[in-house]
Amino acid sequence: MLFSGSFETCYRANLWSRLASRILWKIGDFAYADENDMYEAAKQLDWPSYFSVERTIRVNVTAQKSPLKSLEFATLRIKDAVCDRFREATGRRPDVERVSPDVRVHAFLEHDRGVLYLDTSGEPLFKRGWRAGEAEAPLRENLAAGIVMLSGWRPEEPLLDPMCGGGTLLVEAAAMARGRAPGAKRSFGFEKLRAFDRDLWERVRREKKEGAGTPALYGSDNDPRAIEAARRNLAAAGVERWVRLERSDILERAAPAAEGVMVANPPYGERMGSAEELARFYPRLGDALKKRFAGWRCYFFTADLRLPRLIRLEPSARTPLWNGALECRLYAFNIVSGSHRRRGGP
Ligand SMILES: C[S@@+](CC[C@H](N)C(=O)[O-])C[C@H]1O[C@@H](n2cnc3c(N)ncnc32)[C@H](O)[C@@H]1O
């Protein structure tokens, strides 16, 4: 998504976006045919005006239909351009740091054009700074927030994740309901840039959202280690008092309220249950929903496209989503007792 605005907007977008992975600041674009054109274009930019030579840097290049043979060489040439520009201006060059650089430069190359960006986020925005408990296959925080938003859940409705793992969906839902900024516990790339205005940032950071609700959130999992991880994550995020956790099997647990929204990310794939195990699990899951969750809107996020057929319920929506490179679906089921049975077919 493309938008323009002041640094205040940039600070606010980084602090408040629950869905973005990074907010990039476009600082130049160019036409190119080879690495030399790219080097010259990158060297035209006044890098010392953007950040100090003391800052460590890292360059990332992504390309689509680029004629260049080696992206590694392209990365090196852009890094050289930045360093040469610094050396000419100051007699010194910034150091490269691969793991936790102060400043990240991104270049996106297309067939004959490229764009250069400074990364105002630093670490990707799905790293919110609250992950304390280790759980298997946790969702990325921005994907979890997107799933909760797509469910249409309103904070005054009960919300249950009955396969909560490390509790990502619960933390994100609680943060939304409480008006907590997703970036409140972390730092950002823009703090390392020359344009950084600490007073303005402190002001933006202190802004409060009105009307924090008192959500009723519930989480369960049949693995005690998952419950422990969820407990630690909820505590680190400061939202544990809004969430009731218990160890139970989704096939046996009762609904915590007459109506509500269920969001879950069932196990799938090699690591968390074989295809055969899941094929036996889904029909039982469908039965449990019909028996105990009439009145609930249930949302399952999975890469296993057999789920609606095997659960034997008719989805009211199937939203395609990507989990990294893995194509997934968010299936919605409105559970009404005795109805919505599937009538055969794939
Ligand atoms: C893919 S993980 C969920 C990850 C979670 N969304 C997160 O972000 O951390 C699936 C979870 O389902 C749990 N699970 C599997 N079968 C279950 C069952 N029958 N009842 C309850 N939980 C179950 C597993 O223990 C695992 O924690």
Ligand list: S-adenosylmethionine
Give the overall pLDDT as a whole number.
Answer: 94
Along the chain, the helix and strand elements come as HEHEHEEHEHHEHEEHEHEE
Global morphology: elongated
Strand order of the largest sheet: 7-6-5-8-9-11-10
As a whole number of angstroms, the C-alpha radius of gyration is: 24 Å
Taking the alpha carbons of the first and last residues, their distance comes to 36 Å
Query: Total number of β-strand segments?
Result: 11
Q: Largest sheet, if any? A: 7 strands, mixed
The total count of helices amounts to 9
SSE layout and pairing:
Blueprint: H1 7-16, E1 24-31, H2 35-44, E2 57-63, H3 71-90, E3 103-109, E4 113-119, H4 141-150, E5 159-161, H5 168-177, H6 198-206, E6 217-221, H7 224-236, E7 243-247, E8 260-264, H8 275-292, E9 296-302, H9 307-311, E10 317-323, E11 326-334
Parallel strand pairs: 2-3, 5-6, 5-8, 6-7, 8-9
Antiparallel strand pairs: 1-4, 3-4, 9-11, 10-11
Helix pairs in contact: 1-6, 2-3, 4-5
The structure holds S-adenosylmethionine.
Residues 135, 137-139, 162-163, 165-166, 168-169, 221-223, 226, 249-251, 265-267, 272 line the site of S-adenosylmethionine.
